[in-house]
Amino acid sequence: MELKPGYKQTEVGVIPEDWDVVVLGEIGKFKNGINKNKESFGFGFPFINLLDVFGKAKISNSSTLGLINSTKIERSEYNLKKGDVIFVRSSVKPEGVGLTSVVIENLENTVYSGFLIRFRENIDFDLGYKAYCFYEEKFRQRLIDSSTVSANTNINQDALKKLKLPLPPTIEEQKAIATALSDIDNLLGVLDRLIAKKQNLKQSAMQQLLTGKKRLPGFSREWEVCSIDELIAKNIIEKPLDGNHGNIHPTSQDYVDDGIPFIMANNVHDGIIDFKNCNFITREKADNLQKGFSFVGDILLTHKGTVGNTAIVSKIATDYIMLTPQVTYYRVKDKSKIINTYIKYYFDTNYFQTLLKDLSGGGTRAYIGITKQRKLPFILPTLPEQKAIASILSDMDTEIATLEKRRDKTHNIKQAMMQELLTGKTRLVEPGKE
After folding, report:
1. Which of 178, 346, 403, 426: disulfide with 128, CB 3.0–4.6 Å?
2. Does 148 reside within a domain?
3. Are residues 314 and 291 in the same domain?
4. In 10 A of CB 92, how many CB atoms?
5. 2 domain residue, yes or no
6. Are residues 154 and 273 in the same domain?
7. What is the pLDDT along the chain (434 residues), one digit of tens a residue?
8. How far apart are CA 251 and CA 126, in angstroms?
């Protein structure tokens, strides 16, 4: 492949001719963190743990950290200075190993965990640039390839020392790259905060509108308060069901690459059904099952392990989907009395979710069977008011979804920018000029 003028082929890929390839072990020193017994935690001095690094490109405030009973000698040996880079040494998943945070101010009397490794360089290296350069795609792949796998994925000092990093020749160019990426991070932060605000407003509206605390203009008729059992008895909804239990329940040996979606609790989240990551069973296997057939329009409610997630079955590529014993479907029988979107929004209210959690026991073994579900209360307005409430909440969902798409698009732009800027494919500073 012919190189563009001004570029060179190196062991880390094609980079500008005036960029350097540095070996981490030659430009700085690494040091593992401190190991203490469990009795030492919860009091004493600030302490950076594994979770303080995950998803946080910068660390600046020791007041938010946990505490550990460290000695003066330990605080001197495992100290943290402005500009230090902290690498995650061990992670359950490969994509978590070697993630970094940059210390952007001196952290007095603060030490760091043995699950972390400190890197302190001895060359000119822009503080902001360090928050991004270790997340460049090819560098991350080289790091993961250098890790070892046992119970967890691990990286050690010897492996980190050998890693190579492309580096712009001037602090000015490093700063320009960091500024560009920081600007888009700020935009992502604005979008995240706006989405969170809209989600809070929606949750508040749900709590007000779906419990009758606030009535929409033009509606004054009294609401009916009943149980889910009473909705069944009045033929308003069908008897809710989940998937097959016992010997007839499909197992991993029955899974195929394509077929009828077999929906577990973890496939229902964020108001959608995750068909990309669900299991499938053959139509022949599904047709021989006794229950758990779910169709377009059904409302799904997770009730085992993960309790309270909801989604409406909308477009599906098959005639039906199959549910596991972790998921219940609710199906409207009398559309003149109730609509499925109202049921879904009602299930999502804090009021109903709290009832579910209280009855399910909480934790990883949380479970609320269909018998208990049927005893739960249900608040039923007239059909026109249901539609009006659902319309308002649907509009809010649309607004949130639009913002989420914009955030996702911006995130993808950032990833593309990182690849361009951190490898020198796009230059923000003209070569040879400062």
Report:
1. 178
2. yes
3. yes
4. 10
5. no
6. no
7. 688 899 999 999 999 999 999 999 999 999 999 999 989 999 999 999 988 898 888 888 776 789 999 999 999 999 999 999 999 999 988 889 999 999 998 888 999 999 999 999 999 899 999 999 999 999 999 999 999 988 889 999 999 999 999 999 999 999 999 999 999 999 999 999 999 999 999 999 999 999 999 999 999 999 999 999 999 999 999 999 999 888 788 999 999 999 999 999 999 999 999 999 999 999 999 998 989 999 999 999 999 999 999 999 998 999 999 999 999 999 999 999 999 999 999 999 999 999 999 999 866 689 999 999 999 999 999 999 999 999 999 999 999 999 999 999 999 999 999 999 999 999 998 876 55
8. 54
Number of domains in the chain: 3
Q: What is the CATH number of the domain that holds 214?
A: 1.10.287.1120
Residues 411 and 359 reside in one and the same domain: no
Read off the DSSP letter of residue 74. Answer: H
Could you tell me if 341 and 312 are in contact, meaning their C-beta atoms sit under 8 angstroms apart?
Answer: yes
Q: Is residue 289 part of a domain?
A: yes
Q: Is there a domain that residue 1 lies in?
A: no
CA distances from 313 to 40, 136, 202 (A): 51, 39, 22
| Residues 130, 110: Cα–Cα separation, whole Å | 21
Q: pTM of the prediction?
A: 0.84
244 and 208 share one domain:
no
The 10 Å Cβ neighbour count of residue 178 is 20
